[in-house]
Amino acid sequence: MREASYVKALNEALIEEMARDESVFLIGEDLVELGGGSGATKGLAERFGAHRVRQTPLSEAAFVGLAVGAAMTGLRPVVEIMYVDFVTVCMDQIINQAAKLRYMSGGQFTIPLVIRSQGGGGTSEAAQHSQSPEAWFAHTPGLKVVMPATAADAKGLLKSAIRDDNPVVFLEHKLLYATKGEVPKGEYLIPLGQAEVKRPGHDVTLVATSLMVHKSLAAAETIADEISVEVIDPRTLVPLDIDCINASVRKTGRLLVVQEACTRGGFGSEIVRRVTEECFDSLRSAPKVLGGANLPMPFSHPLETACIPQEETIIEAISSLLAPP
Amino acid sequence: MREASYVKALNEALIEEMARDESVFLIGEDLVELGGGSGATKGLAERFGAHRVRQTPLSEAAFVGLAVGAAMTGLRPVVEIMYVDFVTVCMDQIINQAAKLRYMSGGQFTIPLVIRSQGGGGTSEAAQHSQSPEAWFAHTPGLKVVMPATAADAKGLLKSAIRDDNPVVFLEHKLLYATKGEVPKGEYLIPLGQAEVKRPGHDVTLVATSLMVHKSLAAAETIADEISVEVIDPRTLVPLDIDCINASVRKTGRLLVVQEACTRGGFGSEIVRRVTEECFDSLRSAPKVLGGANLPMPFSHPLETACIPQEETIIEAISSLLAPP
Amino acid sequence: MKIAPDRLREMLRLMYRIRAFECRARQLFEENRLRGSFMGALHSYEGEEAVAVGACVALRSDDYILSTHRGHGHCIAKGVDVRFMMAELLGKETGISKGRGGSMHMFNPALGLLGGNGIVGGGIPLALGPAFSAQYRHTDQVTVCFFGDGAACQGNFHESLNLASVWKLPVVYICENNQYAVTTPAHESIAVANVADRAAGYGCPGEVVDGGDVLAVYTAVTKAVQRARESAGPTLLECKTYRYQAHCMVIPDRRDPEELARWREEHDPIYHFEQYLLDRHIMDEAQQSELNEQVHETVEEAVTFAEASPLPNPNTVVEHLWAED
Amino acid sequence: MKIAPDRLREMLRLMYRIRAFECRARQLFEENRLRGSFMGALHSYEGEEAVAVGACVALRSDDYILSTHRGHGHCIAKGVDVRFMMAELLGKETGISKGRGGSMHMFNPALGLLGGNGIVGGGIPLALGPAFSAQYRHTDQVTVCFFGDGAACQGNFHESLNLASVWKLPVVYICENNQYAVTTPAHESIAVANVADRAAGYGCPGEVVDGGDVLAVYTAVTKAVQRARESAGPTLLECKTYRYQAHCMVIPDRRDPEELARWREEHDPIYHFEQYLLDRHIMDEAQQSELNEQVHETVEEAVTFAEASPLPNPNTVVEHLWAED
Ligand SMILES: Cc1ncc(C[n+]2csc(CCOP(=O)(O)OP(=O)(O)O)c2C)c(N)n1
Ligand SMILES: Cc1ncc(C[n+]2csc(CCOP(=O)(O)OP(=O)(O)O)c2C)c(N)n1
Ligand SMILES: [Mg+2]
Ligand SMILES: [Mg+2]
Fold this sequence. Notes:
CATH architecture of the largest domain in chain A: 3-Layer(aba) Sandwich
Number of domains of chain A: 2
Bound molecules: thiamine diphosphate, magnesium ion
Number of domains of chain C: 1
CATH architecture of chain C: 3-Layer(aba) Sandwich
Number of strands of chain C: 7
Number of helices of chain A: 11
Oligomer: heterotetramer
Mean pLDDT of chain C: 97
Shape of chain A: globular
CATH superfamily of the largest domain in chain A: Thiamin diphosphate (ThDP)-binding fold, Pyr/PP domains
Number of strands of chain A: 14
Mean pLDDT of chain A: 98
CATH class of the largest domain in chain A: Alpha Beta
Number of helices of chain C: 12
Order of helices and strands of chain C: HHEHHHHEHEEEHEHEHHH
Strand order of the largest sheet of chain C: 1-2-3-7-6
């Protein structure tokens, strides 16, 4: 074990999987010199050759389509969409093709495809560069959805995603790339569908994803003397490790979901639905979602800050769960 | 009042609004001779001239983009996307442009735009012609989302949508076009954001959308002797008339949401989240969503039937809410 | 181009088979409709047989094709057993896609059939995938992508032709210009006389071909395939053709009856080719009758097989979604 | 083409203003970055001034433009007050988009500025809207749509050029080919030598223009605008140009320094035009200095204004989403 950044962990996962399996190739914009939007693919063209690191024209529909078709014929493409906001120009290839081809063919094809992208706000890049649309993908049968919050998870989950025989949407967060953590060297796999209790606790179950895991952990730490918060990161939304969440809620009786995506219709609502249905009798107060504002992300920093859950608003939300009605 | 079909009601709404306001025009594929995918625009080119009923090349991104830009400069476009499944090829124009332009411009532009389309399954058209993706739009701040279930609602809501100064996604259901109901002649407006209690009851609150309203009403009727079901159609998902739903749940203590969209991450989860948070103490059993299977829609009729809530499965779901645990 | 007599007769057999299959499928659709049982949408390939046959006979069985919503002809020409196609149309478990896909979604990996598509133009970017895959794996397989005049107006046409050209991918794009997209004439949709003229904008060869002349198609495709196998990049062929039936089974045909009659009388691809073979004594009338009978037998057998086959068990509906299943 | 001296000097002033604005914005970005305060992404237009100025000076103030992510030059050339632009960059309430938009999202309805775009190519289909709107309302307003060489690889380029041509919309498409999309050279992205050559595929005029020569741009755009005003349809102009800075402020520039030096020395649009005006005695050196000073004053005033302006109040964050607000 040694410290590594989230982006380095991604890079390592790519290197290991490309070395392990010749059918893995990378495709996307500016992958070579720039290393893609985050730097995750840096050095890979030198290492594995330009034929395995395919820098494309600015044509997402074409190269995502290419990846889907390549997966149908036995390759294992790892696509990068520079920002997940741009997925709107290649939705068809993901929603109507990648997600459905196996089922529509009666199981005759497998689509071992990973679509990596970065989401999230906090960098004043405004409404078209700050979205968190994981709920769209989670609502599309046939796609797996992964959202790593730590460097180690980034590595372990990306390796598993690449080995998975199904299309996986792998959503990174732009403010996580530089964050560091312990990352196991070499072979390290985290199965898709396995949540992690990032902090144990007994008063409140807090389920958080991506960057919100860190803000939630900070909030939990700050109020640790008053309230004991169990922080769970599902890590993958599809498949969802609902058992882990349910077990915690049965213990605490309280649920808060913290997500950066706007609250209305976000994946938090789905977690609330599942937990409410499956743990109704254990609930001591109403489950709650603290999510982003129901607004396009504004540019100006104070406005943007107001749209994203922050440590203080998370603490408030936790407290409100325990407040007498 | 007289009987008219849902598609006729839509046609009437278009005629009235086009006659009322010269800035209203229609744009989409095969609008003239065919009357669009459903026949809703039939006869309008003859009536208002080809310049107001614009039949396009098969280029959704271009003509939806055109409509957004036209709305920015004062026109009131009503776009038809033949099936809502095809929205994947013009998502950018809806999600990143129409929904966000007003906010990003600091309120300098209004986007009075209606995007009509048809969703839903039940016609053996398989996975790319049967989707119900309303949750995507409801999760996109800046869009209103309307789903009429009856002919009268279709007319009253479409007229309001056309007069609304915001982008409205207006989702019809392919199995509703031929259904008939009483439709007021002439001026008839239903405000966006107003639910309707389609059947009063006191044991269970059942919230249903689109075609599911009818299946739910049938189910409610069938079990009327044993269980009194209040059926509510929100009619618009954004804005959502949560007050109407909450009032009912406070009375019945039980909530079932029935939607055709696949259950995972559907709008039903959002309704459950709201109701659970706002009516927790009134709930006598766990709220439940009965939705479509988490599958691409299969082609074969028995498989398709198994994927969509039916009267029997709705009755089961209602009963399960009242069953002793 | 010298073609062996066997092969020529085989081409005629395939054309007969397509026509017979389509006629019979229409009949079944009508019968089922009267019985109230859905078969979804059915897009007849009658009149366009020379395109699929001319193209597919120029391919090896390990070459790939991407088909369309009007895809039965492509499947038959690529060698698919019509029993499984007919069973699919009837939604049977023995269908080519196990009843999950239906008319628009037929697949056969062993024959390189990578599927039809319900999204117009959906196959255009997918086709880059097998082409890339062949290049990546250093095989000399070629991919043929069929699409319509309507599809030529989709943005992914542009992205894909360009990318294929820049990367010299072994793909042949075949536009089946049957003059209409549903009710919209190509000349109201396409700003230039020939889709093929656009090849110049992608630095690849483009050619207009008489889509009613199977030998012309065969010759043009053979040349394009040769070019692709030699790593010289893509070709865009535009086959001018005409469909004999309405856009699909549920849409009324309002095209000029004289126009249709003219195509049928002057350009029928089957009649034209029959005469050619008879005139040159490659086939005599006895052989012709035999061919005809065999084909009808094959198709009748398919109907018998399909009708005798079981419908899928609804309990198996979730099968074939995930690769782990 | 005969152009009045005043107008020529005005063109130089605008070019100076763009360059001065961009330099100052970069400085501010650097200062802010060191202070840890985000300004989002900043894409400099330095080196490309002749394109925006040559194009916008050929327009009336009621003509429309669609800008890009690299849009400051377009805004200034269309007549926007740089104070509001600078305030926007600093995220201030007085900003042109009230701090909601930022660098990529500047709008001004009165000047026909319909916005930049964070989605590459996002403006291409939008531009059809104002063009259609002018045609519909029987005004003779023209729309100019700027986009890059990267954007030319997006599918909506194809859809939009085709639709504009079929409907003879009054729109001028101007490709600012600055040779790169982030780090990807245009010749690795675009299968032909000139984007303008693709006009032939849409039956409209296409022309390569020296984007470093403001008069060449002005002349070409004037002609295209004339054509559009006369209802003769669209034109595609490709202005060959070069950006002096890295793609944006956070991305390292690894282009060949000699290549950059060559463009700067041999093709600088401002130097080139200064010499032209001096040589022809349209401007003397005193006038030149005065112009220069005025421009710097204007830009400094803008900085003062922006810095003195208040940040938006987070409590107002929801304002400007809905038209009813
Ligand atoms: C993206 C998309 N838009 C619209 C449709 C509806 N639709 C189905 S077939 C068709 C016409 C296709 O025309 P063309 O490509 O010429 O093929 P043809 O039917 O003539 O063989 C349309 C508009 C669709 N399936 N997909
Ligand atoms: C659809 C989309 N894909 C990718 C990006 C990321 N991106 C922003 S600018 C850019 C390059 C644009 O190149 P070009 O169109 O030539 O404009 P330039 O930056 O050279 O002015 C890219 C890839 C984006 N914003 N939108
Ligand atoms: Mg056609
Ligand atoms: Mg560029």
